[in-house]
Amino acid sequence: MADTLEFNEIYQEVKGSMNDGRLRLSRQGVIFKNSKTGKVDNIQASELAEGVWRRVALGHGLKLLTKNGHVYKYDGFRESEFDKLSDFFKAHYCLELAEKDLCVKGWNWGTVRFGGQLLSFDIGEQPVFEIPLSNVSQCTTGKNEVTLEFHQNDDAEVSLMEVRFYVPPTQEDGVDPVEAFAQNVLSKADVIQATGDAICIFRELQCLTPRGRYDIRIYPTFLHLHGKTFDYKIPYTTVLRLFLLPHKDQRQMFFVVSRDGLDPPIKQGQTRYHFLILLFSKDEDISLTLNMNEEEVEKRFEGRLTKNMSGSLYEMVSRVMKALVNRKITVPGNFQGHSGAQCITCSYKASSGLLYPLERGFIYVHKPPVHIRFDEISFVNFARGTTTTRSFDFEIETKQGTQYTFSSIEREEYGKLFDFVNAKKLNIKNRGLKEGMKQSYDEYADSDEDQHDAYLERMKEEGKIREENANDSSDGSGEETDESFNPGEEDDDVAEEFDSNASASSSSGDGDSDRDDKKPAKKAKIVKDRKPRKKQPESKKGKDPNAPKRPMSAYMLWLNASREKIKSDHPGISITDLSKKAGELWKAMSKEKKEEWDRKAEDARRDYEKAMKEYSVGSKADSHRAERSKKKKKKQEKQMKGKGDKKGATSKSSSSKSPAKNMSESFKSKEFVSSDESSSAESKKEDSEEEGAGSPAPSSEDSASGSD
């Protein structure tokens, strides 16, 4: 018999919702991994108490009960798989897989049994329905009546919110059956009640989602957010992951609490939040005293916390949360962007935020927050920006078909991000899945588990890492990691659009030279049309090189005279330092010496004004001459146009009066025509040289050429 059994497309029933995932049975126990959240349920073989096989809506289902009272339900099995599962349970778990069908009589009168965390309503020996008591949010009693209220499931279209049980009165003295029923429910229900004092309180913390400032009260089993308008209670059992992320400005820190999407999310009106994001300044410090004695602190937290602690506010909050939630804190790994930061500035949907490449996934903060694990990514894609070539888009598509597009990423980040994705062996859509790039993730491993505590190492070596980051950012600022988003395409575009002789750069064979010559020829037209438009405004704004130069100020006259002296007094001084030193010397100069340079500046100003007057008079005379020549040219053009019209009219009239003459002149030799053209050209030249000529004389010349 095989040591393991694996089933795909198995559904786990949790709080009225069916969650898709993978189920594996082995000698060690039962493992189920949720495809949506990545959460892993691990049931040890020694903890199993009972296994039940029954017919359900999605085929057949398996119900497992543990010795500590927990119930796990998995649906989606085929009827033919019963024998295989039954033999496996006998061989490895020493359990009989019992077959129990649900009662479908439709009766509403029966017996309620409490077993572990399960309420079962039975008719005879057959169960009608079962209610996991962890689904119950409130339990109220009335006369002979108990009402159970449930958490709302946002993923389901229809949610069961309330069930009422009628409890008949009994004759037993001192026992109220209604109260006994309610106590059994409340002992296992997920009812959050703030009983006792808080372990500690953090005042007025800035919260990004949900937005506002909240007092955070830390209780043994849940977190209480108290604001001016809203109050929220978050059980520690619903927390999936904790993140501590440095802001790009290196002055602030994000602390992110990721929650199981199936548990009741934080609600603010109609908006639901599955992430709690706190923003801290690195400069804020706090001294914290826990509301417990030292023995209780040592017994409960085993050295992870002490009664009196002090340090940065974000460190204290993360340290307390880590101890109570009992989950490791995820921090950014070895990724560093172009600027040296551990994140990338980008936009998701309509908001700008920060994308953090982690060791096991990506997280985007903050609106809306998105966490994507590597094991749920189908492929990633690097796409050109839609508006400009200075940025690109980073697209992620999951195995469920959900697509995330992070846009407006600076082009300089491309090389760093591509190397990171390549190192993590993610499938890149642009080039396909290459050999050796297949992901090596354990499909049943918890995405939160890590072999080492990165946060603990980060806290121990924080000073050293800051120093390294500063060095890396200074080194990276002087080199270009990625000159273009897609080098092959970028180079082609540059050659076509901006080279004046793009065809000359082609080193291909003779057969391709014709095609290369034809393509750039079309592009060259575009270049010639574009360039004058850019240069035209520059030529209009150009200054006359013959115009007098503006006079210098007293300080500039002094600086030109003293520059060499300052250089000799301070050898090797830079231009910037020289300017600073000159400013200091000028400021310390006496009033008498400054007046001397003021007089020189005044003399220069007077000389400039005198030269400008002479220049303006000369420029006016030039403009008058240019205006006269312009008018004369226009007049000559009009005269030439009039001559052409008269010539056309006279030739038309002569042809109508003497048709016989036209017939005889229709056979003219080539020499006669060319001489006619040359004579008409000479007449035009002579007319253009005359000023104010009256009637034109081409008719006499034409007749002379005709007699010849």
UniProtKB/TrEMBL annotation:
<dbReference type="InterPro" id="IPR000969">
    <property type="entry name" value="SSRP1/POB3"/>
</dbReference>
<keyword id="KW-0227">DNA damage</keyword>
<comment type="function">
    <text>Component of the FACT complex, a general chromatin factor that acts to reorganize nucleosomes. The FACT complex is involved in multiple processes that require DNA as a template such as mRNA elongation, DNA replication and DNA repair. During transcription elongation the FACT complex acts as a histone chaperone that both destabilizes and restores nucleosomal structure.</text>
</comment>
<dbReference type="InterPro" id="IPR009071">
    <property type="entry name" value="HMG_box_dom"/>
</dbReference>
<dbReference type="InterPro" id="IPR024954">
    <property type="entry name" value="SSRP1_DD"/>
</dbReference>
<feature type="compositionally biased region" description="Basic residues">
    <location>
        <begin position="627"/>
        <end position="636"/>
    </location>
</feature>
<dbReference type="GO" id="GO:0003677">
    <property type="term" value="F:DNA binding"/>
</dbReference>
<feature type="compositionally biased region" description="Acidic residues">
    <location>
        <begin position="477"/>
        <end position="499"/>
    </location>
</feature>
<dbReference type="InterPro" id="IPR050454">
    <property type="entry name" value="RTT106/SSRP1_HistChap/FACT"/>
</dbReference>
<dbReference type="GO" id="GO:0006281">
    <property type="term" value="P:DNA repair"/>
</dbReference>
<dbReference type="Pfam" id="PF03531">
    <property type="entry name" value="SSrecog"/>
</dbReference>
<feature type="region of interest" description="Disordered">
    <location>
        <begin position="461"/>
        <end position="556"/>
    </location>
</feature>
<dbReference type="GO" id="GO:0005730">
    <property type="term" value="C:nucleolus"/>
</dbReference>
<dbReference type="InterPro" id="IPR038167">
    <property type="entry name" value="SSRP1_sf"/>
</dbReference>
<dbReference type="GO" id="GO:0035101">
    <property type="term" value="C:FACT complex"/>
</dbReference>
<keyword id="KW-0235">DNA replication</keyword>
<dbReference type="InterPro" id="IPR013719">
    <property type="entry name" value="RTT106/SPT16-like_middle_dom"/>
</dbReference>
<feature type="DNA-binding region" description="HMG box">
    <location>
        <begin position="548"/>
        <end position="616"/>
    </location>
</feature>
<dbReference type="GO" id="GO:0006260">
    <property type="term" value="P:DNA replication"/>
</dbReference>
<dbReference type="GO" id="GO:0042393">
    <property type="term" value="F:histone binding"/>
</dbReference>
<dbReference type="InterPro" id="IPR036910">
    <property type="entry name" value="HMG_box_dom_sf"/>
</dbReference>
<dbReference type="Pfam" id="PF21103">
    <property type="entry name" value="PH1_SSRP1-like"/>
</dbReference>
<dbReference type="InterPro" id="IPR035417">
    <property type="entry name" value="SSRP1/POB3_N"/>
</dbReference>
<dbReference type="GO" id="GO:0031491">
    <property type="term" value="F:nucleosome binding"/>
</dbReference>
<dbReference type="Pfam" id="PF08512">
    <property type="entry name" value="Rttp106-like_middle"/>
</dbReference>
<keyword id="KW-0234">DNA repair</keyword>
<feature type="compositionally biased region" description="Basic and acidic residues">
    <location>
        <begin position="637"/>
        <end position="648"/>
    </location>
</feature>
<keyword id="KW-0539">Nucleus</keyword>
<feature type="region of interest" description="Disordered">
    <location>
        <begin position="612"/>
        <end position="708"/>
    </location>
</feature>
<dbReference type="InterPro" id="IPR011993">
    <property type="entry name" value="PH-like_dom_sf"/>
</dbReference>
<feature type="domain" description="HMG box">
    <location>
        <begin position="548"/>
        <end position="616"/>
    </location>
</feature>
<feature type="compositionally biased region" description="Basic residues">
    <location>
        <begin position="520"/>
        <end position="534"/>
    </location>
</feature>
<feature type="compositionally biased region" description="Low complexity">
    <location>
        <begin position="500"/>
        <end position="510"/>
    </location>
</feature>
<feature type="compositionally biased region" description="Polar residues">
    <location>
        <begin position="697"/>
        <end position="708"/>
    </location>
</feature>
<dbReference type="GO" id="GO:1902275">
    <property type="term" value="P:regulation of chromatin organization"/>
</dbReference>
<dbReference type="InterPro" id="IPR048985">
    <property type="entry name" value="SSRP1_C"/>
</dbReference>
<feature type="compositionally biased region" description="Basic and acidic residues">
    <location>
        <begin position="535"/>
        <end position="547"/>
    </location>
</feature>
<dbReference type="InterPro" id="IPR048993">
    <property type="entry name" value="SSRP1-like_PH1"/>
</dbReference>
<keyword id="KW-0158">Chromosome</keyword>
<protein>
    <recommendedName>
        <fullName>FACT complex subunit SSRP1</fullName>
    </recommendedName>
</protein>
<comment type="similarity">
    <text>Belongs to the SSRP1 family.</text>
</comment>
<dbReference type="Pfam" id="PF00505">
    <property type="entry name" value="HMG_box"/>
</dbReference>
